[in-house]
Write a structure and sequence with these properties.
The complex is a heterodimer of chains A (786) and B (238). Chain A is built from 23 helices and 22 strands. Chain A has 786 residues and is α+β, with helices and mostly antiparallel strands. In chain A, strand 15 and strand 16 form a beta hairpin. Chain B starts with 6 loop residues before the first strand and ends in a 12-residue tail after the last strand. In chain B, the strands form 2 sheets. Chain B has a 6-stranded mixed beta sheet with strand order 6-7-8-3-9-10, sandwiched between helices. Chain B has 6 helices and 10 strands. The longest helix of chain B has 18 residues. The chains are: A alpha+beta (786), B alpha/beta (238). Chains A and B meet through helix 13, helix 20 and helix 23 of A and helix 2 and helix 3 of B.
């Protein structure tokens, strides 16, 4: 080993804590990149394999009812590889622990053999035996949520009659990755049930003997989906087709795609930020470390080492730290990604996980570390190499403060000498001080953004459930009922307010742009389920025209006053032109509102409603739910509090969980930056401190000079960090928003306070650590050193 | 000299070792010495003989491994860190070969650094006047020559009116002419302010200026002699 290499290892050992701190910051930056990219790639791969292996349909075409012969016609459409007809129904399961019962979707499986499209993954038990009437498969997540085991029976209420079904297996399917109640956009395992049974028995229950009410399609790879959808609609129209839609509009798929898109957006937005800040820190720290090595460099040059040899020596030093950190970060990132993917696997109900390591991310992370460190080091080395060895070696030349500020008599009274030292040191190296401030502020801004994000999620929940939806429960009817039932339901003791709605499936169209949606008909000035503007103030439901969610208006590229084509997919299925009357702001879903009376007029079926929102006296809720459960025309009751809890769970467990990880990483990075600043300041100011001590200054007084500088840098960083954090919060809120829910940027006092507190605590701890170094200064050796 | 001699310093079996095992270095091996107050003392000896170590221990910059140091009958070697800081703050001044001025403070401010914390300081300007630097007092260290820097260091050291001034190779980095100026100033301080001066030096010629010359070799004192006639700094041949 050459002498230089020995020096290298000794230097590394001497600066081990600082090297570790730098390496760790870099490691965290790289870790976030590798972890998030690995997560996204893995989720995408897993989704793709799951869809392919279990043959998720490319197109779904629901109808009222169609004879099985229609399938022959559908199969002839160019580009269709396979088509199957299946029966879909709703069955109310009587759960002993549910106040309202659970409305399950019942789906048919072929009478013979495996499903060729939309197959199921059996997670326990066995498949249904042919010709056994009451055998079913139950959705895994629902079985788990209610602790229903294979071999147990469940009770369903069919046509007012209780009927037992034996659960022979629990299953999951790619079409139910994300389990949300019809009409609701958020999943809730306890309330979302799917039952699979043999087609012939489900036909019997639904009264669809020999018929199907949903055609599912697999397409050729190069099929023209838009064209096929039109042809399917043409064929199914006479059979009451509701409008065929592609897999991209399947609720489950949309949700999961959006979630992955959200994770991808944060994977694109956050890691560069973390990595960038870490790289910036490396740059600052390395350049200052090299600066401190100036004399040694002069000495080596004096011995006859060339600039290239010395440069290589220091670059090795830098690269070992940077690469060490990056490699550690890569390994931690892979493991972190695997862990996180495991969390997502459960959350998304993937039966398996195809974990992929994103080598590209690892390469980029390592490259950025090395490049940032090399640039930081080379920049300073270049300046040092310009000096001749004698000058470089001669540290006795005091740094030039001659252009520094002079203190007038008033300032002399104000600042003692140590304070003047602090001020002059800061002012002499404004760029360096600014660099440290920006580095600390950047770290802090990450914290602000991550804490804000937590507040944003809470705000999102608060707005959705206290401002937009203020009902206690939503009641869905078996079929549309005359509006008179409102008066009837109002009479139930404890119900305070009943507000009717009508939900009608429809297709909204603006030229080539279409959207399948449920139109909600509401009263003129709703109290319980309201449309709101950007300021979250209620807006009235106007008599003419339609009110669109802002995300939907964006998708269809329409604004207030524009015309839309509205194809109602119910009753006489009228098609009409309608004006956009207003845009409403929503945080969850993309609702479409119309005045109830106007919607009913279009449908021309009389004054009908699909359900009601209710507000009740909470002390009487048990009795009220019992009463509603036994009302024959009521299909299901969704309790708002349940939906809220489910929403909160999504926010906390899915993509939302990432924000906790990020917040912790942000804090650690901030600490690393502050600690390094303190360490470097100590390395540079050691001699001055020893000098003060020799004159008779106490340890505390000497520490004041050093830590005072750190304190000022920190204090100035706080407002900068708040400002940066404020803007960063908007960026992260956008990154975490999806088409399905929107996260408002909520920058509050708390996030500024907590992030500032974190920086202050980091400063105090770093100061304390450095103070211990100050206390241990060997006065003699420092003062007598060159 | 009549009556009892007043000692500034007295040491008992002063031992200082650095390191452990094979690497152990005995810098001081049981030094016993008495240094009377108000004298100009020169410590001579080859490198590594222990003279600087003694100076540092007397000045409260370092602690002995064993043995005792008394300053005006107060045991310095028993002092805790706080007392040691006070000792340095009020009783002793240091001058180093490397000046050790604070680059971010002007000459005057470097002196004020001391006058702000000392009990009965000289006015900072007066201290600079004594070293002949009144016209340069608002300059920063980077704007001064080595000799000027060392004069600022002396002004800073005497501004607190210490009983003792420790000088570790004060002329080591200076040319002979400037070195002589510095020695002149030190002699002045000794004679006019009554400050004890203890100088560590390689420059044997300096010994001619001293009241007392202590010769070091191998971690102990080999001889102590007193000069009947003290030379003036100007008379010294380098």
């Amino acid at each position: 080993m050459s002498s230089l290499d020995r020096k290298l290892f000794r230097d590394l050992r001497r600066m081990k804590w600082q090297a570790i701190a730098i390496g760790l910051v870099m490691a965290l930056g790289v870790m976030v990149l590798v972890m998030m990219d690995g997560l996204v790639v893995s989720l995408e791969e897993t989704k793709k394999s799951y869809y392919e292996d279990y043959k998720l349909a490319d197109i779904f075409a629901p109808t009222q009812a169609a004879q099985s012969q229609v399938l022959v016609e559908l199969a002839k459409i160019d580009g269709v590889e396979n088509v199957q007809g299946r029966v879909r129904g709703s069955i109310l399961i009587d759960m002993p622990n549910s106040k309202t019962g659970v409305l399950a979707q019942a789906l048919s499986l072929p009478n013979q053999g495996k499903a060729q499209i939309n197959d199921v993954f059996l997670s326990a038990g066995r498949m249904i035996a042919p010709d056994v009437a009451n055998e079913i498969l139950l959705l895994n997540s629902f079985a788990d949520a209610h602790n229903i085991k294979v071999g147990e029976a469940i009770t369903a209420i069919i046509g007012g009659q209780k009927q037992q079904f034996n659960v022979v297996g629990v299953a999951q399917a790619p079409e139910f990755l994300f389990a949300a109640m019809p009409g609701e956009l958020l999943p809730d395992d306890t309330r979302f049930a799917v039952i699979w049974m043999q087609q012939r028995y489900l036909e019997d229950i639904t009264g669809l003997a020999g018929k199907f009410n949903e055609a599912i399609f697999l397409l050729d790879d190069d099929a023209d989906t838009t064209n096929i959808l039109t042809k399917i609609d043409d064929i199914l129209d006479p059979h009451g087709g509701y409008g065929a839609y592609g897999v991209e509009d399947l609720v489950s798929n949309r949700f999961i795609s959006e979630e992955i898109k959200g994770a991808k957006a944060s994977a694109q937005a956050l890691p560069p930020l973390f990595l960038g800040i870490a790289a910036f820190l490396i740059f600052i720290v390395i350049s200052r470390i090299i600066q401190a090595e100036r004399q040694q460099i002069g000495l080596l040059k004096a011995f006859g080492y060339s600039s290239a040899e010395i440069g290589r020596h220091y670059l090795k030093f830098i690269i070992i730290i940077a690469l060490g950190g990056a490699i550690l970060g890569s390994v931690a990132g892979v493991y972190g990604g695997l862990e996180l993917a495991g969390v997502y696997q459960i959350y998304y109900k993937f039966p398996f996980l195809e974990f992929r390591v994103d080598y590209q991310a690892i390469f980029i992370g390592n490259l950025v570390s090395v490049v940032a460190a090399t640039i930081g080091g080379s920049y300073i080395l270049k300046n040092i190499f310009k000096l001749n060895p004698a000058v470089a070696m001669h540290a006795a030349t005091p740094p030039d403060f001659s252009k520094s500020i002079r203190f007038g008599s008033w300032a002399k009274r104000l600042f003692n000498q140590p304070s003047r030292m602090i001020i002059r040191t800061l002012l002499r190296h404004p760029i360096r001080a600014l660099g440290a401030m920006i580095a600390i502020a950047s770290g802090m801004s990450l914290s602000v953004a991550m804490i804000s994000l937590m507040a944003s999620f809470d705000k999102s929940i608060e707005m959705s459930f206290e401002v937009i939806d203020r009902s206690d429960a939503m009641v869905n009817f078996v079929q549309p009922m005359p509006i008179d039932v409102v008066a009837e339901l109002s009479k139930i003791a404890g119900i305070e307010l009943v507000e009717p709605f009508r939900a009608v499936p429809a297709i909204l169209q603006n030229g080539q742009l279409t959207h399948k949606s449920l139109i909600s008909g509401l009263v003129a000035a709703p109290e319980l389920n309201r449309a709101v503007n950007v300021e979250f103030e209620a807006i009235p439901i106007v008599e003419t025209g339609i009110i669109l969610a802002s995300a939907l208006a964006e998708k269809l590229q329409v604004g207030v006053g524009d015309d839309l084509t509205l194809k109602i997919r119910s009753g006489a299925r009228p098609t009409l032109n309608i004006k956009v009357a207003a845009i409403t702001e929503t945080l969850v879903g993309s609702p479409v509102y119309m005045r109830l009376a106007s919607l009913n007029k279009i449908l021309d079926q009389g004054e009908l409603i699909s359900g009601v929102y209710i507000k009740m006296d909470k002390s009487q809720q048990a009795a009220i739910y019992d009463e509603l459960k036994s009302t024959p025309y009521i299909l299901a009751v969704s309790i708002t509090a349940d939906a809220k809890a489910a929403f909160k769970k999504i926010m906390d467990t899915g993509a939302g969980a990432v924000r906790y990880v990020m917040a912790i990483i942000a804090f650690v990075i901030t600490f690393g930056i502050v600690f390094n600043s303190a360490k470097i300041a100590f390395a540079e100011g050691g001699r001055d401190l020893a000098c003060l001590r020799s004159i008779g200054y106490t340890k505390g007084e000497a520490a004041y000079v050093l830590l005072g500088e750190l304190a000022i840098v920190t204090l100035v960083s706080l407002p900068i960090g708040c400002v940066l954090g404020y803007y960063l919060s908007f960026a992260t809120a956008t990154a975490f928003s999806t088409d399905l829910y929107k996260i408002p940027a909520e920058v509050n006092f708390e996030s500024f306070f907590l992030a500032s507190l974190a920086v202050v605590v980091a400063t105090i701890v770093s100061g304390w650590l450095v103070k211990r170094n100050i206390d241990k200064i060997d006065l003699v050796s420092v003062l007598k050193s060159e | 000299m009549s009556g009892e001699t007043k000692f500034a310093f007295r040491t008992e079996n002063l031992v200082k070792t650095y390191g452990q095992g094979d690497g152990q270095v005995d810098a001081l091996r049981g030094v016993n010495v008495e240094i009377p107050a108000k004298e100009f003392v020169v410590l001579l000896g080859p490198s590594g003989s222990g003279k600087s170590t003694l100076l540092n221990i007397l000045g409260g910059l370092d602690k002995p491994t064993s043995g005792k140091v008394y300053f005006n009958d107060i045991e310095v070697s028993a002092m805790k860190d706080k007392a040691m800081t006070k000792y340095r703050r009020h009783n002793v001044g240091f001058i180093f070969q490397q000046y050790n001025l604070l680059p971010s403070l002007t000459a005057l401010e470097n002196v004020e650094l001391v006058t702000e914390i000392a009990k009965q300081p000289l006015p900072a300007k007066q201290a600079l006047e004594m070293v002949g630097l009144t016209d340069r007092m608002n300059h920063f260290p980077s704007q001064m020559s080595g000799g000027e820097l060392q004069r600022v260091a002396i002004a800073r050291a005497i501004a607190k009116q210490p009983s003792v001034l420790f000088c570790d190779e004060p002329t080591g980095a200076l040319d002979s002419q400037t070195g002589r100026t510095i020695l002149n100033i030190l002699q002045d301080i000794n004679e006019n302010l009554g400050t004890s001066i203890i100088i560590v030096t390689h420059a044997v010629a300096t010994a001619a200026m001293a009241d007392r010359v202590i010769n070091f070799a191998d971690g102990n004192i080999v001889d102590i002699r007193t000069n009947a006639h003290k030379a003036k700094a100007d008379e010294i041949e380098w």
